Amino acid sequence: MDIDIDFKTNFNPLDYFKEGTEACIVKDGKLQRHPAGVYLQAIPKDPISGLAAIPHKEAEALGYFKIDFLHISLLDDFESKAEIRTLLEMEPDWTILESRENVEKLFQLGRQFDVVNIIKPKSIDDLGVCLAIFRPGKKHLLQHYTANKEFIREELFRKPDDEDKYYFKKSHSLAYAMNIVLQMHLIKAGIL
């Protein structure tokens, strides 16, 4: 199981969870800090680095539970959850996506103007399709999108039979799409 929680860039989970332990990865034969993972349960620690002594993939197999506290710079532009909720309830100016310059500013979509230009999003669901369609194993679906939108949408988020095969979840695409809507409001306000 993978839990990701988004925070402002100045958030440090260990300021709040004093007993937490930063997760690790192995790179070039050495333990290194995982970019966002923290264990909130007791896990063996490396005595030199203070990191978890078990790399995160092996730790998961042993029953340890890592939470990724992701730093999202977009959140730095907002004062409160209420402000974010208000903006998400407002319809963005979808014509913003007709400009390559604007699309290049957007989270995850920066290099995907051609995809955005074909799909022409007018909703969060449409943005989710844009985000999913350029993922590995899905790019070929773009050429068929306008002819059979409903089938392609279903196919984009179908879980593969092979558990090891890359899979972009609809929940992730919609969460990312909401971030993009917030950025669109910032562009409209001249902030981004």
Summarize the structure in words.
This protein has helices at 13-16, 56-61, 81-89, 100-103, 113-119, 124-133, 142-145, 149-156, 170-188; strands at 3-7, 21-27, 30-39, 66-71. The model has no long low-confidence stretch (mean pLDDT 92). The protein has 2 domains: 3-71, no CATH class; 74-188, no CATH class. 37% of the residues lie in helices and 15% in strands. It starts with a strand and ends with a helix. The radius of gyration is 19 Å and the shape is globular. Helix 6 (124-133) packs across helix 9. The chain has a 4-stranded mixed sheet. By secondary structure, the chain is of the alpha+beta class.
Summarize the structure.
This protein has helices at residues 13-16, 56-61, 81-89, 100-103, 113-119, 124-133, 142-145, 149-156, 170-188, and strands spanning 3-7, 21-27, 30-39, 66-71. It has 192 residues and is an alpha+beta fold. The protein has a 4-stranded mixed β-sheet with strand order 1-4-3-2.
The ordered H/E elements are EHEEHEHHHHHHH
The geometry reads as: globular
Strand order of the largest sheet: 1-4-3-2
Coarse structural class = alpha+beta
Our count of domains comes out at 2
Query: Helical residue percent?
Result: 25-40%
- Whole-angstrom Rg: 19 Å
Number of helices: 9
Low-confidence blocks of residues: none
Distance between the termini: 34 Å
Strand content: 5-15%
- The pLDDT mean sits at 92
Number of strands: 4
Largest sheet: 4 strands, mixed
